[in-house]
Write a structure and sequence with these properties.
Layout: E1 2-7, E2 13-17, E3 27-37, H1 41-49, H2 53-59, H3 61-74, H4 76-87, E4 90-92, E5 96-104, E6 116-120, E7 130-134, E8 138-140, H5 147-150, H6 153-166, E9 173-177, H7 181-192, E10 196-200, H8 204-212, E11 217-219, H9 225-234, E12 239-244, H10 252-260, E13 261-269, H11 279-285, E14 288-291, H12 302-305, H13 320-332, E15 342-347, H14 351-360, E16 367-371, H15 377-382, E17 386-388, E18 406-411, H16 415-426, E19 431-437, H17 441-451, E20 455-457, H18 460-464, E21 471-474, H19 478-490, E22 494-497, H20 505-518, E23 523-525, H21 533-542, E24 550-556, H22 569-572, H23 575-591, E25 597-602, E26 609-614, E27 620-626, E28 636-642, E29 645-650, E30 654-658, E31 663-664, H24 676-689, H25 697-716, E32 720-723
Parallel strand pairs: 9-10, 9-12, 10-11, 12-13, 13-14, 15-16, 17-32, 18-19, 18-21, 19-20, 21-22, 22-23, 24-27
Antiparallel strand pairs: 1-2, 1-4, 3-5, 3-7, 3-16, 5-6, 6-8, 24-28, 25-26, 25-32, 26-27, 28-29, 29-30, 30-31
Helix pairs in contact: 3-4, 6-7, 6-13, 19-20, 23-25
């Protein structure tokens, strides 16, 4: 990734390629959308770096004192090597940004992948494409607040903490000295709190801007305008608070504060200005001088910032994280307007040139932002990931004569085949279980004995080459589904394959290529929920709809036993890829359409998922797939709302429809029927008669593509388009 850095010894600025930070526990990895350039703090660092060694020493007497102490302790040679080594290293820049959560570390549960967050900290909110940010230094961005505005969160917190230190009251009058970025924000915060504000700055443009943003009057501190405005607003008593938001080496701000503050007024230092207090002036008025420490309580405390230990709200109402959230809330509600403060937005790749122009005065800006291309406006839309939904052109096959019995072969005889499929087929009239193919001899022999197969074998080619076999069931592990389906289609067989049809886009394309090559589109995937009698009955009672619908499907999947092959994600795909097609197919069947986009987020480890599907008519389906729920809670609950009606399904035990009339099913006396028997009946009928398959091929492919898009969405943190040719 790229990051802006500076060599403090030489003054060199550069955009370097550096390793991506790891996502450690207790924080999140954030991909930057916009980062804010502090034209005060950062430009001061940039200017200092360009000074001679003597100039650097004069500008940082505190560091000189540390060097002298090191000389006394360690000697000149060791101290020299230490100082030169530190100076001749790249240091980062930046401390305020907004971005998208790309990865969530262990212990974080308040945000998820894809969430927009504002971040703070000169070690964690840097001008870099990716940053790891600990919990107490980020907050979610409120709905409706643009990312370029949320990038002001840190500087807004600095201004807010300064205002809190002044303890303003309704009806008071305040003086803000210095109308740069922080000063402009202080003006707005005070005005929002019911305080009348006078601003002082030598730049007429900044004075005019502050007046537009809420100041009662502004002017040059060297003129009489500021003093006259204070006298008029306070009846000559002086202001209740003075906020020092200026920088530089002049002592004028401190002297002006003493002159214009009322007796026992408060003076708050927010910026970094010279503080040679005129003792007599401050003593005679007994002025209360206060400092504002950056973003608020918690700043510089490693246990708070790095270890995530919050301060109890009853003892510390406004921590730095709560200040950050408060400022964003004010901005989202329009109480603070940061848009007029944005003077320039530069592409991140132009960072070095932007700093040069700011330093040289060529670019005059209250605030400048870096825009990161992968997250900026229309560029994000253009680069949104997509999963292809392949198609195949197939000539209509001639009608087949009805055939009895229908001869079936099974490839695989595992638990699902022997518990959910074969019991329904073994006793069905007009069906002959011809051959079972397994990789081990004993499993085939057991299936033959229990269900009456005519033959058991381990020879797949013999089955595919047997022209008397009408249909093949593929009920093997997930990793083999696509290839076995492809071979069976090319052999001219009607195919029933358990979900998933494919684990990758390439596998899905390979299946469609076999359909195209063979002209054989006789395919069914084991999406059985749409065939469940209770759900079919509820759908009939719900009726047709005219407007968009919202569907919510909660799947309490539960934990898998240790050692389950479902956990072998490297070879068998994710758990959702293996099972999620059921729920997407059910949603699409109820909404009578195929999805056009997929957005997915997940908890740490991608165990619990939230999947949002969007449909052509504006309908949405939200699938919550959780593995951490209680075992006693129903596995599947579904709600569908549209046109003033609602359908509810409670785990295939009970269903209801609410509308002008209410319909409630009776409780089923037997085990849950999730549609396997009806699905197999429809499949056998299609094989015997040569009629249409129970589910159109286009729908099977669209559901599979949407399931695959979930993984792509989790990786990218943005919606995935389902691209159709």
């Amino acid at each position: 990734m790229k990051q802006v850095v500076q060599n403090y010894k030489s003054g060199e600025l550069a955009v370097l390629d550096v390793p991506v930070p790891g996502c450690k526990p207790g924080g999140v990895l954030v991909r930057s959308a916009f980062s804010l350039i502090s034209t005060g703090t950062e430009l001061m660092k940039v200017s200092e770096a360009g000074m001679s060694m003597l100039g650097k020493a004069r500008s940082r007497p505190d560091q000189v004192a540390k060097v002298m102490q090191s000389v006394a302790t360690n000697g000149v040679p060791a101290t020299y090597r230490k100082v030169m080594g530190k100076l001749d290293s790249y240091t980062p820049l930046g401390y305020s940004l907004c971005g998208v959560v790309e990865e969530v570390g262990a212990g974080i549960d308040d945000v998820k992948v894809g969430d927009l967050v504002a971040c703070a900290g000169n070690e964690h909110a840097l001008h870099a494409e990716l940053n790891w940010v600990p919990k107490n230094l980020y907050v979610p961005v409120p709905d409706g607040l643009a990312p370029q505005h949320a990038a002001f969160g840190t500087v807004g917190s600095i201004a807010m903490q300064g205002v809190r230190q002044g303890e303003p009251q309704l009806g008071e009058v305040a003086l803000v000295i210095g109308l740069g970025l922080i000063g402009q924000l202080v003006v707005q915060l005070l005005a929002a709190a019911g305080v009348r504000v006078v601003g002082a700055d030598p730049d007429p443009a900044r004075c005019e801007l502050a007046e537009r943003l809420g100041a009662a009057a502004c002017g040059d501190p060297a003129s009489a305008a500021v003093e006259n405005a204070v006298a008029e607003l306070t009846d000559g008593h002086g202001v209740d608070q003075v906020y020092l938001a200026a920088g530089g080496g002049s002592n004028q701000p401190v002297e002006l504060a003493a002159k214009l503050a009322r007796d026992r007024g408060r003076v708050v230092d927010i910026g970094k200005c010279r503080l040679d207090l005129p003792w007599n002036a401050y003593y005679e008025k007994e002025l209360d001088v206060r400092f504002s420490r950056s973003y608020g309580p918690g700043r510089y405390d490693p246990e708070y910032e790095l270890q995530g230990r919050d301060y109890p709200i009853g003892y510390v109402r406004w921590t730095e994280r709560r200040n950050l959230a408060c400022f964003l809330d004010l901005a989202a509600r329009g109480k603070v307007d940061v848009e007029p403060l944005i003077s320039h937005v530069a592409d991140f790749d132009d960072a070095v040139e932007t700093y040069r122009r700011l330093k040289d005065g060529e670019l005059k800006a209250v605030t400048a932002l870096f825009r990161y291309p992968e997250q900026a406006g229309e560029a994000e839309e253009a680069k949104a990931p997509a999963v292809a939904v392949p198609t195949a052109e197939v000539k209509a096959a001639p009608a087949r004569a009805a055939k009895t019995p229908v001869k079936l072969a099974f490839i695989g005889a595992g638990n699902y085949a022997t518990s959910m499929l074969l019991p329904h087929l073994a006793r069905r009239e007009g069906v002959e279980l011809s051959t079972v193919v397994t990789t081990t001899s004993l499993s085939g022999a057991n299936a033959q004995r229990k269900f009456g197969f005519a033959e058991a074998t381990t020879d797949l080619d013999a089955v595919l080459g047997d022209k008397s076999i009408d249909a093949v069931f593929v009920v093997t592990r997930h990793s083999s589904h696509a290839e076995l389906t492809r071979q069976a289609l090319l052999a001219g067989k009607t195919v029933f394959v358990e979900k998933p049809l494919a684990l990758t886009e390439d596998e899905l394309s390979g299946v469609l290529a076999a359909v195209q090559e063979s002209g054989n589109d006789r395919l069914q995937v084991g999406f059985n929920r749409r065939f469940a009698p209770l759900l079919q009955e509820a759908r009939n009672h719900f009726g047709a709809r005219s407007g968009p619908a919202h569907l919510r499907y909660l799947v309490n999947a539960g934990r898998l036993d240790h050692g389950s092959w479902y956990l072998q994600q490297g070879s068998e795909g994710s758990r959702f890829v293996g099972e999620g097609g059921h729920f997407i197919d059910t949603a699409s069947w109820l909404l009578d359409a195929d999805p056009v986009s997929v957005y997915a987020t997940a908890s740490s480890g991608n165990e619990d998922l939230q999947v949002v599907l969007r449909y052509p008519d504006g309908s949405t389906a939200t699938i919550g797939y959780v593995t951490t729920g209680p075992s006693g809670f129903p596995k599947e609950t579904l709600d569908l709302v549209a046109d003033g009606r609602a359908l509810r399904l409670d785990d295939f035990v009970r269903a209801s429809v609410y509308g002008r009339k209410k319909w409630v099913s009776s409780r089923l006396p037997k085990a849950r029927d999730k549609g396997q028997n009806a699905e197999l009946a429809a499949f056998i009928k299609a094989v015997r008669t040569g009629g249409p398959m129970p589910v159109p091929l286009e729908s099977l492919v669209a559901t599979t593509a949407a399931t695959l898009a979930v993984q792509a969405g989790l990786a990218g943190g943005v919606p995935v388009t389902l691209a159709r040719p």
